[in-house]
UniProtKB/TrEMBL annotation:
Residues 3-136, 158-289 form the UspA domain. It comes from Streptomyces virginiae. This is Universal stress protein. Belongs to the universal stress protein A family. PANTHER family: STRESS RESPONSE PROTEIN NHAX, UNIVERSAL STRESS PROTEIN UP12.
Amino acid sequence: MKRTLVVGVDGSPESRAAADWAAREAVRRDLPLHVVHAWLWQPLAVPIVQDRDTESRRADDILKEVEQELTHRYPSLALTAEVLCDTPVPALLRTAKEAEMLILGTRGHGALLGFLLGSYGQQVIAAAECPVVSVRSAHGRPLAVPEEGEVVVGQQGGVEESAEVLRVAFEAAAARKVPLRAVRAWNLPPVYGYSPGSMWIAEQFGGLEPFEKAALDQALEPWRLRFPEVEVVAHVERGSAGHVLLSEASDAQLVVVGRRVRESAVGTRIGSVAHAVLHHAACPVAVVPHH
């Protein structure tokens, strides 16, 4: 079965920008695109006239308008569309189970507002089983990013832990024929704050940065072999992972970050690094779940 990209739309300029980005990505990768709109008849407890048929037609019209726009701009695109009879979050999460990638729109350069209303986008990103791309918009189109810009990926942990994140990043760089910048940030373990002598001992053995560089090279090695055409720039820097990644991604066309799949006392979470990048990166951000 051929992999499919899925984009959620709601009629807003932000979702139309996400649809446009998704269509270009689908053409770039020679993949089909499935456009979805979540709609469920839910009468409001307010004294206004509501009509189910009218609302249903509006849901269909939203999809038809997006289909027409994308078909006109990308005539080679394999496109399908569907109204999902459910509320947005469960509908999108269910669709994401079978998707190669889910694309959503966000607003401007401020905090992530998500899909449709409030925290819907954050809920989907935090719980989706596939990578979710957040696309910022301006005037209903994706924010302009340099087409020659790199794909930037944040690498954390060991080889297995970062494998899925690096796979998504290498595939994106290969599809775009641009370099991949792999960024690993590190900080001193707490022990060095309590024991300055430990830092002196570490310095005698060349410091901690060589260990971090070796860890990044080890994680990249299998993907360099699998994607020999992708030029890789490895960057290791001491500092906050979110700050380091954002500084390296100032001219990127896509940033890829990981999200550890785990439950907390308050439910699923995006993670501090992904949260920072989603809020402050100007380019689209792909959040990849991993264990």
